[in-house]
Amino acid sequence: MSLPEELIKAKRDGQALTDDALKDFVDGIAGGQVSDAQIGAFAMAVHFRGMTKAEQVTLTLAMRDSGRRFEWSDLNGPVLDKHSTGGVGDLVSLVLAPVMAACGAFIPMISGRGLGHTGGTLDKLESIPGFNVSPSPELFKKTVRDTGLAMTGQGMDLAPADGRMYAVRDVTATVDSIPLIVASILSKKLAEGLDGLVLDIKTGNGAFLCERDRSRELASSMVDVASRSGLACHALITDMNQPLSRSAGNALEMVEAIDFLKGGNTDPRLEEVVLAMGSEMLILGKMAGDATVARDMMNDALATGSAAERFARMVSMQGGPADLLDGPGEYLTVAPVIRDLQATESGFIEFMDTRAIGLSVVGLGGGRSRVEDSIDHRVGLSGLCDVGESVNKGDPLLTIHAASDAEWLAAAEKIAAAVTIGCQTDRLPAIYERVT
User: Fold this and answer.
1) What letter does residue 183 receive in the DSSP assignment?
2) Pick the CATH number of 4-64 from 3.90.110.10, 1.20.970.10, 3.40.718.10, 1.20.1250.20
């Protein structure tokens, strides 16, 4: 085995690392021979010196091979997934996965929890009583086979080298290193055994990467490294200068997702991202020749109720109530204090500090600042206005769902400072670019 300190020194000095040296280092991370201090030093060296695409591919594949890999050769359809870099009101996974399953794809979705101002799919699913976000590998595979989709957390046995490296990056200010982001995300997705992957790379004031150039750089790197690693991949760069949907908060987003699946009122921006992401997935899976055919397939899956039925079956198989979609109000708990926040003047929504809005949900108890924090699934925001939307003085800007009057007031103060009412401004596009 190569000495970890020699690899760190080489990267510190700007040298390209050999395949064998990187593989030995990752094996040492997974096996415990490499210390947290050495992982941190390596991450910092990469942060400043970068990595070639070849190095990124080697690191990605080595982390993929550090644990369990799923294999789906017996399925009669493509195995597909999506990944979002995270945002506020981003409930796309909850809708898109069952729509794809209803179209004939298989979606073994490995999701994450929210941290900081961004929400997490696992937290939203845990607002459903009894839903098991950590099924056994056997139940996970059976649920995918029987319903076309399943949703789970990363687990200790999936890319464990990445899990350990991420924990160190989180406390060493190296989370935003693009080569390490690429390897972290793709190692897990490759371990899923996918035929195609579509990335939702957010940009804007509520995104992990605020600048469009940085978002484009990440999208291009991920598509390139995925392709070099044998995984067909496309990316969309989407807007996070305002929440994506009309709600932000775990049970509230679940209600909106269920309403979407059942054909209720849908936010146009959310619908556009769902259909665009789904089109890319169906094209990558060779199930549709173009976006028009793909969108017709997805609209049919929604109109016939097939997508809703797939979601309901997944929920039941993973321990949730079988009749969730018939009466979500019976199962999804409601906050004790629910009141509108009213506009103090007339005009147009000119600007939204999306990160601050997300942090207001965290302040209500609906998110976490530390991994070990608990979640209040009831709280959050609903009825969010869009940038460019007109409001009159006294109109509701949104509704705050809080655990107490004091917490409602604290959230109202933060949100009022985060929303600017001013002159008429253009509506924001939901999607900026497509990267293939």
Assistant:
1) H
2) 1.20.970.10
Average pLDDT of the chain is 94
Q: For 428, which DSSP code?
A: P
At residue 156 the predicted structure's pLDDT band, cuts being 50, 70 and 90, is: low
pLDDT tens for each residue of 301-316: 999 999 999 999 999 9
Of 58, 66, 84, 266, the catalytic one is 84
- DSSP track, 100-131: HHHTT-BEEEE----BTTB--HHHHHTTSTT-
35 has catalytic annotation? no
Q: How far is CA 69 from the centre of its chain?
A: 21
Query: What's the pLDDT at 326?
Result: 94
Strand pairing of 337-342 and 396-402? Answer: antiparallel
Do the first three CATH levels of 4-64 and 333-422 match, i.e. the same topology?
Answer: no
239 is catalytic: no
Q: Does the structural domain 333-422 have CATH classification 3.40.50.150?
A: no
Task: Output the pTM of the full model.
Answer: 0.93
CATH architecture of 80-156+166-317: 3-Layer(aba) Sandwich (3.40)
Q: One of 113, 169, 216, 377 is an active-site residue; which one? A: 169
Q: Is 83 a catalytic residue?
A: yes
- Where are the chain's structural domains? 4-64, 80-156+166-317, 333-422
Output the CA–CA distances (angstroms, integers) from residue 81 to 3, 101, 233, in the order listed. Answer: 37, 11, 10
- Is 81 catalytic? The answer is yes
Longest dimension (CA), the chain: 68
* Residue 174 appears among annotated catalytic residues: no
Q: How far apart are CA 244 and CA 89, in angstroms?
A: 5
What gap in Å lies between CA 215 and CA 93, rounded to an integer? Answer: 20
The span from the CA of 365 to the CA of 374, in Å, is 8
DSSP 389-403: -EE-TTSEEEEEEES
Determine whether 188 is an active site residue: yes
234 catalytic? Reply is: no
Give yes or no for residue 1 having a pLDDT over 70.
no
pLDDT, position 411: 97
Q: Exposure string (b/e) for 54-79, b if CB count within 10 Å is 16 or more?
A: ebbbbbbbbbbbbbeebebeebebbb
- How many Å apart are CA 151 and CA 140, to the nearest integer? 8
